[in-house]
Task: inverse folding
């Protein structure tokens, strides 16, 4: 006998195996309940022959706690572990360094709401009618405000809850504001945050606006000014919102640690999404950043990093850190007009270029996720659903369609979990669709109604060199596969604004028009607002609406999103999606003459 190896395995106390699914075929059958904490876990020691020394071999682990930390509109290169030098993220960097950074991480849509719905459902949102953001509660679109993520979709939160997990969602929801879509109805035991797509950050700023609008009887108060809630009950929050969400995440961990069950926490910060609002102390940390937007944006990311450190400390103080899988990511690419950077990726939020939906991401779990590594193969947030179900011993409902894959074994083995498979993204615009798909090292892309392009994304991550002319057969094959996938889409159940609904109906968008045509003669490129730099005084629709909202609320006027949308359309004379400084001057001069 050369040595004795010790195999440490959890006890089978109270273990009840669930019905086997596809997930179980390549994974150890052992599925364990989570104990109170690391010091009380019972271990059974087995003696086995080992050829070399007295090495310890670890068998199937206890089911981990799972913590997903999601930022909102965070740029690919706006964290230290992805190369940021002007934004300091020491807490995130420490986790990334002792975990594995995913350098080719994707989300299923370049906008907030559809991306989140994809993560929670494990499906592309287009397949259940959710390719657009839900409309802001201030839009006054009653039928749309009753919409949300398909009630027939079993979310990963429910799968884990049914598997014995204590579940919590903290922060931004953006998947429906009424009871059928509420987090407490969709698998979360504890929810603290806001239901809409965004929020102001300072209670002393938004609370008076809300109270004034409520007293005036405005039925369409903008969601950015609504009170936060805890499990359906309105709360009078007093802290800067990012700090408040961090505080509540710590509370959830403290509560969860007292329970004899594992926990799942979805911590969804709204930072650094607009409005750009930061604490004075955080702004002082970035006094050397000259650009005002970038400085405020950096301070907002700084606050997130501080909060993540607080959550990590709570995990450690509760002896849960070593038993917790932490995943960090953004919901989509950074919004470059709001201070974000996505270098070396092209473009940003809303785009089907890499900068729109390739995001910063890392996995961290001491003793399980390899430390100090980079995983170069494609990973999608769609993969979280089956992977979490596998790790947590959850049962995926019979007949449940998933676009994600259980990547765990391939991830640990540093192998491509999606070899030969495609990762898709589609963004519908007025009269045409932007679309792209990646398969291994190749990516096809069509945007702004231009011709299809082909890139070797491993060698050309910035998507500068179109190789379609040299590889026509590959281009045709990949576009054909994407068109086949598009047939799984259904009619959108809502649009982010009424104007978009009218445009959809008028342009025949349900049929994709000529989106998947390879014929270059059918390409009629258009200029899209976010693809060009804005001059001083220019505004995209989103920026214009945001500034008008702040002005209306400051003056105590009842917010009318439809009226402001029409105002933007009147100003944007050339219909390029940007209200230029010259167009604004012309509009206001005309209004002055008419009045």
Result:
């Amino acid at each position: 006998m050369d040595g004795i190896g010790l195999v440490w395995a959890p006890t089978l106390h109270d273990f009840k195996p669930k019905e086997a699914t596809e997930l179980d075929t390549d994974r150890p059958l052992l599925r364990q309940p989570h104990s109170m904490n690391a010091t009380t876990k019972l271990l059974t020691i087995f003696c086995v022959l080992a050829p070399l020394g007295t090495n310890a071999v670890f068998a199937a682990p206890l089911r981990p706690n799972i913590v997903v930390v999601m930022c909102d509109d965070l740029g690919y290169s706006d964290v230290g572990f992805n190369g940021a030098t002007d934004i300091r993220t020491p807490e995130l960097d420490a986790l990334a360094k002792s975990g594995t950074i995913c350098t080719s991480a994707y989300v299923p849509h370049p906008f907030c709401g559809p991306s989140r719905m994809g993560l929670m459902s494990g499906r592309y949102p287009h397949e259940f009618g959710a390719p657009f953001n839900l409309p802001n509660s201030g839009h006054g679109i009653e039928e749309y405000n009753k919409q949300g993520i398909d009630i027939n979709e079993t979310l990963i939160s429910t799968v884990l809850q049914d598997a014995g997990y204590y579940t919590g969602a903290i922060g931004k929801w953006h998947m429906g504001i009424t009871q059928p879509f509420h987090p407490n109805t969709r698998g979360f035991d504890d929810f603290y945050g806001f239901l809409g797509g965004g929020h102001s950050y300072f209670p002393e700023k938004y609370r008076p606006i809300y109270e004034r609008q409520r007293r005036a009887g405005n039925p369409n108060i903008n969601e950015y000014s609504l009170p936060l809630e805890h499990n359906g009950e309105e709360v009078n929050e007093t802290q800067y919102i990012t700090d408040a969400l961090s505080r509540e995440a710590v509370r959830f961990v403290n509560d969860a640690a007292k329970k004899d069950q594992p926990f799942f926490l979805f911590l969804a910060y709204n930072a650094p999404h607009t409005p750009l609002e930061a604490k004075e102390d955080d702004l002082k940390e970035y006094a050397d950043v000259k650009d005002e937007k970038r400085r405020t944006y950096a301070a907002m990311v700084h606050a997130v990093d501080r909060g993540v450190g607080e959550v990590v400390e709570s995990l450690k103080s509760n002896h849960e850190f070593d038993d917790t899988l932490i995943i960090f990511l953004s919901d989509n690419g950074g919004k470059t007009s709001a201070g974000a950077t996505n270098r070396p990726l092209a473009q940003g939020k809303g785009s089907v270029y890499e900068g729109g939906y390739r995001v910063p991401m890392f996995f961290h779990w001491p003793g399980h996720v390899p430390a100090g590594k980079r995983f170069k193969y494609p990973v999608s947030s769609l993969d979280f659903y089956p992977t979490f179900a596998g790790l947590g011993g959850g049962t995926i409902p019979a007949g449940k369609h998933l676009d994600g894959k259980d990547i765990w074994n391939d991830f640990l083995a540093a192998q491509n979990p999606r070899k030969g498979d495609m990762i898709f993204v589609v963004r519908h615009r007025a009269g045409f669709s932007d679309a792209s798909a990646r398969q291994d090292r190749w990516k096809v892309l069509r945007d702004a109604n231009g011709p299809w392009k082909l890139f070797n994304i491993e060698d050309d991550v910035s998507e500068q060199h179109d190789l379609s002319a040299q590889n026509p057969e590959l281009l045709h094959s990949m576009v054909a596969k994407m068109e086949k996938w598009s047939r799984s889409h259904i009619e959108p159940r809502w649009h982010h604004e009424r104007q978009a609904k009218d445009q959809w109906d008028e342009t025949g968008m349900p049929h994709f028009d000529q989106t998947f045509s390879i014929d270059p003669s059918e390409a009629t490129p258009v200029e899209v607002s976010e693809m060009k730099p804005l001059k001083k005084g220019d505004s995209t629709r989103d920026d214009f609406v945001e500034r008008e909202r702040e002005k209306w609320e400051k003056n105590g006027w009842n917010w009318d999103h439809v009226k402001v949308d029409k105002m933007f359309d009147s100003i944007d004379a050339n219909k390029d999606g940007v209200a230029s400084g010259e167009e604004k001057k012309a509009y206001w001069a005309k209004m002055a003459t008419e009045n």
In short: The CA atoms of residues 148 and 176 lie 4 Å apart. The first strand starts at residue 4 and ends at 10. The chain has four domains: 4-58, 65-412, 422-522, 540-594. Confidence is low (pLDDT under 50) at residues 1-60.
